[in-house]
Each structure stands twice: as structure tokens, then as C-alpha cells.
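Backbone-to-sequence.
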């Protein structure tokens, strides 16, 4: 706990002078809280205080439909809509993908069959949506098998047939693997 970066952010709030830029980067600052709350309100187009799938998809234009669908399947919703607390968890995970806690969060979404591992079938499911989204915007062909091989090289899984959460955490680039599977823009930026 003492070495946690979150504890450092809390300690920063005690500093007498903090720039606006630093405050916006500190998750616990008033400025950061207002930024996230304002974002939530802007996404809530029907002004019912909750976010549906279409509204959450506006969080980032690169997010794939399968990812958004899985978020709503795995996380607590209320009659199919996301409340502010669930949105906070989502934003925390999205903004801190390098942390093991975020990788755990995304693992719940990626591990479609709850087997404790994702195989080529699951990776194909997610990649096909990323590729489809990219091909709508740019005239480039991607081969799922080449992309899958690249993910395997990055994740360095213990098993040659599947990737586990521990593989993602240990490889040091789990955040990049996750981003490539859920976000076409992140994939394009990486590629």
C-alpha cells in the first residue's frame, strides 16, 4: 500500500500549490472529479442519469461494439444501463490500463467463456471488430492470423494455446494487448 501510486496521488493533494494541469491528472482532485462527472453528463444524451450502450460507445470512437456489449454483460447495470459508479470504474480502468487492477477489470470482459484463459477463438472475436472498424476508415487489409501471432509474441503466454490474466500481467505490455483487442484507434496508433 505504501508504494502504491494511488497513495502518492493522495499525498499530492496536501501540497500547498498544485497547478491546474497537475490537479487534472490527479484522480482524487476536485478538478479531476469534475472532469469525469462532466464527461458522464455529456455522454448521457437522454438525460436519464444513466448510460446505455450507444451513449457509452461515445466515450471513445475506437471502442468496438463487442467490447461495449461485453461491458454491459459483465458489469452491474440497471435495466441495461450503467450508473455513475460503474462508469467511474470504467474510466479508472481505461485511464490506468497499465495497473494490474485494470488488467483484472478488462480480463472479466475479455474472458468471454469464463475459462481463465482466452484462446484464438476469443481473440478472433475481438480482432474482427477492430479490423472491421479500421477498414471502414482506411483502405488497408489486416490478416487476423498475423495479428494473433503478434499478440502471442507480446503476451508470451505459458501455454501455447491460450493467454491467461497472469500472462498479461507478467509480460509488461498487457495494457497494449488489451487496447489492441478493444479499441480500433489504439490498435491503429500501435500499428
Amino acid at each position: 500500500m505504501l508504494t502504491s501510486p494511488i497513495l502518492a496521488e493522495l499525498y499530492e493533494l496536501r501540497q500547498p500549490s498544485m497547478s491546474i494541469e497537475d490537479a487534472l491528472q490527479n484522480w482524487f482532485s476536485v478538478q479531476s472529479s469534475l472532469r469525469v462527472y462532466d464527461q458522464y453528463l455529456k455522454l448521457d444524451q437522454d438525460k436519464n442519469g444513466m448510460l446505455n450502450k450507444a451513449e457509452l460507445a461515445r466515450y471513445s470512437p475506437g471502442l468496438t461494439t463487442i467490447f461495449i456489449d461485453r461491458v454491459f454483460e459483465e458489469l452491474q447495470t440497471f435495466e441495461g444501463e450503467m450508473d455513475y459508479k460503474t462508469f467511474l470504474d470504467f474510466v479508472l480502468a481505461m485511464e490506468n490500463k497499465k495497473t494490474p487492477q485494470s488488467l483484472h477489470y478488462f480480463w472479466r470482459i475479455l474472458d468471454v467463456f469464463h475459462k481463465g484463459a482466452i484462446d484464438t477463438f476469443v481473440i478472433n472475436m475481438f480482432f474482427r471488430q477492430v479490423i472491421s472498424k479500421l477498414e471502414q476508415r482506411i483502405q488497408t487489409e489486416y490478416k487476423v492470423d498475423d495479428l494473433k501471432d503478434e499478440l502471442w509474441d507480446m503476451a508470451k503466454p505459458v501455454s501455447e494455446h491460450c493467454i491467461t490474466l497472469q500472462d498479461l500481467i507478467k509480460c509488461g505490455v498487457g495494457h497494449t494487448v488489451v487496447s489492441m483487442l478493444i479499441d480500433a484507434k489504439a490498435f491503429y496508433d500501435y500499428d
